[in-house]
Amino acid sequence: MFESLSDKLDGAFKKLAGQATINEINIGIAMRDIKRALLGADVNYKVVKKLVEDVRQKSLGEGVIKSVSPAQMIVKIVSDELTELMGGEQKPLALSSSRLPAVVMVAGLQGSGKTTFAAKLAKRLKKSGRNPLLVAADVYRPAAVDQLKTLGAEVSVPVFSIEEKDAMKVAMQGLEAAKAGAHDVLIVDTAGRLQIDDAMMAEAEALKNALKPDELLFVVDSMMGQEAVNTAKAFNDRLDFDGVVLTKLDGDSRGGAALSIRHVVEKPIKFMSVGEKVDDLDQFYPDRMAQRILGMGDIVSFVEKAQESLDMEATLQMQKKLMKNEFDLNDFFDQLQQLKKMGSMQSLIEMVPGLNKMVPKQDLENLDFKPIEAIISSMTKEEKSRPEIINGSRRQRIALGSGTRVQDVNMLLKQFGEMKKMMRSVSKLSGNGRKITSQN
Ligand code: GDP
């Protein structure tokens, strides 16, 4: 996710490394690079202009703390600005508890990922103790109803559908079915078209007026870049939706839609979809996303995801070790085992600082951890907890024992070292972040 933008921003920050102070000249150069990086990522021009100007002013302004390096300071300021740009606080789904069922209506272009999202949301709500009903009101695309039924079965949520070409009738009968079946949430999947057209908008508008949804969510494919932003604007002008769901972020290397959409339509991004599987849905946290774009990884999201699927005790210990930088090869090994248990590999790997650089981007889904596991298993207890003692002859023994080559052992140790370094800088950076805020 957003690899190319992250790399370019990283390049801009690197130029500031080693500079003793922030001044007009080095800030000017950094801003030029940041601007290029954002425009190259297909971020809306007006958004870029505003962001660059804000960052420049804050960097040269009063609030700059002398005790942190210019590079750290700028990363912090850019991180804050990106967070703000994407909406600041996380905006949760707001479902009424008094009206039953609460209604979520899902709208967007065909192929944006609406149907998949509806099922993912159903799964999520069910997990949180709700009793949802899905309604297949996409009556034009014949496969849509079957697709929703299949997905519904996968997430164990019932799907209401009838042989009917009138979406309004389907939706209203779905609403009645939800009441009769004591469902407390109704999720209505509506029809999209390949392009914006008046008939689609009119139908969505009529459904909105009839269903009076608690949440009308607009689903959009982030890989469409600025076109996603234009589509969002057109839907919002007509439907005045409540929130945005960004899909296919797993395939988006640029990030233009994620960074521009909130500013352009002034509606929060509530969810992000990061893969085709039913678990590949996350709430959208602007601050975590900003940190991820800046290559700081996303320890918080990672730990949360871990908490959902792992036992709490192990997770808390891992969190403590990450923070205290006491992470050794034993933990690394455990973490690989646990990673395998959790949802989509790609999205998880991206969240762990360092790990995203250690594993090749291609073919992450079929990632083979066996050689890494074999190498670590061939180490002694002491070697695992103190990898620095692994000298040349130990490396040879480990390679022999694990059926790998000495180069593979070297590579693993080098990468593990880099990962630890990265974790240290992440925790330092977040420490500085707090300092800056409290001194301001
Ligand atoms: P709809 O026409 O808007 O209902 O779109 P669908 O839900 O049928 O999704 C269109 C295609 O995009 C399907 O092949 C989905 O599996 C795929 N898809 C949906 N969300 C994501 C996502 O977050 N990442 C990826 N890679 N594919 C997705």
UniProtKB/TrEMBL annotation:
InterPro entries assigned to the protein according to its UniProt record, in alphabetical order: AAA+_ATPase (IPR003593), P-loop_NTPase (IPR027417), Signal_recog_part_SRP54_M_sf (IPR036891), Signal_recog_particl_SRP54_hlx (IPR013822), Signal_recog_particle_SRP54_M (IPR004125), SRP (IPR004780), SRP54 (IPR022941), SRP54_GTPase_dom (IPR000897)
One term of GO molecular function: 7S RNA binding
Biological process, per Gene Ontology: SRP-dependent cotranslational protein targeting to membrane
Residues reported to bind GTP: 108-115, 189-193, 247-250
Predominant localisation class: cytoplasm
Annotated SRP54-type proteins GTP-binding domain residues: 268-281
CDD domains assigned: SRP_G
EC category name: hydrolase
Catalysis performed (reactions): GTP + H2O = GDP + phosphate + H(+)
The keyword Cell inner membrane appears for this protein: no
Subcellular location: Cytoplasm
Pfam families named in the record: SRP54 (PF00448), SRP54_N (PF02881), SRP_SPB (PF02978)
Record flagged with keyword RNA-binding: yes
Coiled-coil annotated residue ranges, if any: none
GO cellular component, one term: signal recognition particle
Keywords, ordered alphabetically: Cytoplasm, GTP-binding, Hydrolase, Nucleotide-binding, Ribonucleoprotein, RNA-binding, Signal recognition particle
Lineage: superkingdom: Bacteria
Domain notes: Composed of three domains: the N-terminal N domain, which is responsible for interactions with the ribosome, the central G domain, which binds GTP, and the C-terminal M domain, which binds the RNA and the signal sequence of the RNC.
Role according to the record: Involved in targeting and insertion of nascent membrane proteins into the cytoplasmic membrane. Binds to the hydrophobic signal sequence of the ribosome-nascent chain (RNC) as it emerges from the ribosomes. The SRP-RNC complex is then targeted to the cytoplasmic membrane where it interacts with the SRP receptor FtsY.
Family: Belongs to the GTP-binding SRP family. SRP54 subfamily.
UniProt subunit comment: Part of the signal recognition particle protein translocation system, which is composed of SRP and FtsY.
Protein name, entry field: Signal recognition particle protein
Source organism of this protein record: Chlorobium phaeovibrioides
